[in-house]
Design goal:
CATH architecture of chain A: Sandwich
Order of helices and strands of chain A: EEEHEEEEHEEHEE
Number of strands of chain B: 12
Radius of gyration of chain A: 18 Å
CATH topology of chain A: Immunoglobulin-like
Radius of gyration of chain B: 51 Å
Structural class of chain A: mainly beta
Number of domains of chain B: 4
Number of domains of chain A: 1
Distance between the termini of chain B: 59 Å
Largest interface: A-B, 33 and 41 residues
Strand content of chain B: 15-25%
Shape of chain A: globular
Distance between the termini of chain A: 17 Å
Number of helices of chain B: 14
Oligomer: heterodimer
Chain lengths: 169, 586
């Protein structure tokens, strides 16, 4: 049952939270687009990690803000040359889906639904909580040194715009 | 402008530390190079170590080159030669290093290019296609079976029981009935929790609706494969929403394993191909750092080597200046022991000997002339006044004239010694038994002094050599007398003479060693004991060892002396058995 619900548009992405059975969940829309270089790397067998780093911050007037919780969700994206399918695995839950096109992958990861964020009992109703989401897509198993030496081509790593929204009103 | 000067010992320590660090890091790099992607994790730090070494070496080379150029501009002696040598050695190092670098880079690039060979890529693609073809039949069987299962479903009411029944009857691992909104209505698996129900995507649902079926081959995190089939359920629906049946079929584990192996190889190949260029750059960069380090080391070494090589010449120049200012001639022994140093030392020694010979000749001539009239005059005074004076006066006259005569005799002895030292090298070569001569010398002194013990370790009773017998006799007498003097205060004095037949440069020689257990040479004397006027004896003229060396060298022999570790001194003479057949030599 939804008790409190907010939706805030970020610069490009969008995030919203709602309370369900004592737990705050989030629905997120990420502006995730794979670059040509990333697609080429994926198809060459390089595995990518999409890391979503959530921070729940108590925004206080006249005092320093206080981080009350942090959560990281990691999705592993890889291409299997034998099945010719992309598989996306949630490293936190082990849940795996497979897709036949990169646009499906992009679409799947751009809309993340019902991600548990924080237990309601940890929060105070008087406080002003904001959720900050920093996301990045990184080529796994390729050292920074190799990435530096790939200077002539588009970067394999990309950082998505930060999304922030009010946890509840 | 401040001048940076590094302590040579500190510089040496820095250089050796850097060489050690660089070598260790490069070896680590070399031995951990199995997987190019893996090594790159440590590559950055290893290359950083080498980059630091490179910067420090560059700084050292800069300092050395700056000093060299400054010396050259100031026209310091040897600077031109040093610069030429440094350029020559440096040039000799640069050319092969650059050639080696380009060839190594070329070979390396060719080696890496083999990874992405078109034939290999085609082969791997074919292997993938072959694997897929092997599974195509299984996929078709799965599709056929799932379609039949979907036809067998009778309604939504008892769907759970129907699925359980169908799973048992079929080859399917799991059956799932879901609607077009991806809501699972029922799911059944013959192996509980073996596989998570994998949801189809909306696109797959659309495809299944459009084409009446959807098949795919899915990989699992454990490396096995599953055939997934999605077909519409045509006989009934739920709340007006179309339903779909999804079935999973397992692939033979052996086939799965092979497929996974092919896929892993293909992926590995793909990763290497994709990272080929940065890997190439990484290797080239490492090689470049190694070559540059080696080059800098070579340039630094060439500058230092040239300086060391030219140092004796600078010393010679300084010594020449020292001779002019009547300072003692000396080349520091610990500086270097190369041929140029030896040459310079020989040159200085020859200069000194020539100077001493000249002095000795003049002294002999100038002092000898007035000695006879002085002696005769003293004797005449004594003779004339001995009949006139009596008592104390007579005693005074007698003592004074005797002192004059005695001192004139001492002076004459000294003049004779100088005369012998200054003699032109003239040898009267003959064959004789050198052992006999040694024994005679020993016999001469053992009769005079029976307190000493003479130990003779002669390799033979008779050994004939070609030499000047009288001069060698003088050598042995001199050395034995020196040994006797040295052991004067020793409680159990002994003199040990050993002979051996040896070969030097394929020439037969005799080695004569005279050891004593006396007080030995004073440390400040050992280095220049053969120089004229060097002595520790109260009444010594300091010419004995100089004459001995003179005679030995006239015979093309070699003499050296040193203090023994336990007690006493040791003199070693090496004489060739044969002399050039010229008769008397000059």
């Amino acid at each position: 049952m939804f008790v409190l619900s907010t939706t805030v548009n970020a610069e490009i992405g969008k995030g919203s939270s709602y309370l369900d059975a004592g737990v705050y969940y989030s629905d997120i829309e990420l502006p995730l687009n794979f670059t040509q270089e990333q697609i080429k790397a994926l198809e060459s067998g390089i595995v990518f990690n999409l890391e979503l780093r959530f921070q729940i911050v108590d925004v206080r007037s006249w005092r320093l803000d206080r981080t009350i919780g942090a959560l990281t969700q990691t999705y592993t994206i890889e291409f299997n040359a034998f099945t010719r399918r992309y598989s996306v695995t949630n490293s936190n839950t082990g849940w795996q889906v497979s897709m036949s096109t990169i646009s499906e992958v992009s679409g799947y990861l751009s809309k993340i639904r019902k991600l548990p964020l924080v237990d309601d009992s940890l929060l105070s109703l008087e406080a002003n909580y904001r959720v900050f989401l920093n996301s990045s897509l990184r080529a796994r198993g390729v050292s920074q040194w190799m990435k530096t030496l790939s200077f002539w081509r588009e970067s394999l790593d990309s950082d998505l715009e930060q999304i922030q929204w009010q946890l509840f009103n | 402008m401040a001048v940076i000067q590094l302590n040579p010992r500190t510089t040496k320590r820095i250089i050796f530390s850097l060489i050690f660090l660089s070598t260790v890091s490069l070896l680590t790099l070399m031995f951990s190079a199995d997987n190019p992607n893996e090594i790159n994790k440590i590559q950055f730090s290893l290359i950083a170590v080498n980059a630091i070494s490179f910067i420090v070496f560059l700084f050292l080379v800069f300092l050395s080159a700056k000093k060299l150029i400054a010396d050259y501009k100031q026209k310091k002696l040897g600077a031109k030669l040093r610069l030429k040598m440094a350029l020559a050695f440096g040039g000799l190092a640069i050319v092969p290093a650059v050639v080696l670098f380009f060839f190594a880079t070329n070979f390396m690039n060719k080696g890496i290019s083999v990874w992405s060979d078109a034939d290999i890529e085609q082969g791997l693609n074919n292997a993938l296609m072959l694997g897929r073809s092997a599974l195509d039949e299984k996929i078709q069987q799965g599709l056929f079976e799932t379609s039949n299962l979907a036809l067998g479903l009778t309604g939504i009411e008892n769907i759970d029981q129907q699925l359980q029944q169908l799973v048992k009857q079929s080859n399917a691992e799991q059956l799932v009935v879901l609607d077009s909104e991806l809501q699972i209505l029922s799911s059944s698996s013959d192996k509980i929790n073996r596989i998570n129900p994998r949801m189809p995507t909306r696109l797959e649902i659309e495809q299944a609706s459009l084409k009446q079926s959807w098949t795919s081959l899915d990989s699992t995190p454990s490396g096995s494969y599953l055939i997934r089939v999605l077909v519409p359920v045509l006989s009934f629906s739920s709340n007006q929403k179309p339903l779909y049946l999804q079935a999973f079929f397992s692939v033979d584990p052996k086939l799965s394993m092979m497929a996974d192996s092919v896929e892993e190889t293909y992926a590995r190949y793909g990763r290497l191909s994709f990272m080929k260029a940065p890997i190439q750059y990484s290797y080239i960069l490492t090689l470049a750092i190694v070559v540059l380090l080696a080059l800098l080391l070579a340039i630094y070494g060439s500058i230092e080597f040239a300086e060391r090589l030219v140092k004796p010449i600078e010393a010679l120049e300084k010594q020449t200046g020292a001779t002019k200012s009547k300072t003692r001639l000396h080349v520091a022994k610990d500086e270097s022991d190369d041929e140029i140093t030896t040459l310079v030392q020989s040159f200085i020694q020859a200069q000194k000997e020539a100077a001493w010979s000249d002095v000795a000749r003049r002294m002999a001539h100038e002092i000898n002339n007035p000695l006879t009239p002085i002696q005769l005059s003293a004797e005449r005074i004594k003779k004339r006044y001995s009949s006139i004076f009596k008592g104390d006066d007579l005693e005074f006259i007698t003592r004074s004239t005797e002192t004059i005569v005695n001192q004139v005799e001492v002076l004459r002895g000294m003049v004779n010694a100088f005369g012998k030292f200054a003699e032109e090298p003239t040898l009267s070569i003959d064959s004789f038994n050198v052992i006999k001569v040694i024994k005679e010398s020993v016999s001469l002194y053992s009769k005079k002094d029976n307190k000493r013990t003479f130990i003779l370790n002669l390799h033979s009773e008779s050994f004939t050599i070609h030499a000047d017998e009288q001069k060698l006799r003088q050598v042995f007498n001199n050395l034995i007398k020196n040994a006797l003097d040295a052991t004067a205060n020793t409680s159990l004095p002994s003199i040990n003479i050993t002979t051996n037949k040896i070969e030097v440069n394929n020439e037969p020689c005799i080695k004569i060693i005279i050891n004593d257990n006396g007080k030995g040479f004073k440390p400040n004397i050992v280095g220049n004991a053969f120089e004229p006027y060097v002595t520790t004896k109260i009444k010594g003229k300091g010419l004995g060892l100089a004459i001995v060396k003179h005679i030995v060298e006239e015979h093309k022999g070699h003499i050296e002396l040193h203090n023994k570790e336990e007690q006493g001194a040791s003199v070693i003479i090496t004489l060739p058995v044969f002399q050039p057949k010229k008769g008397p030599t000059k």
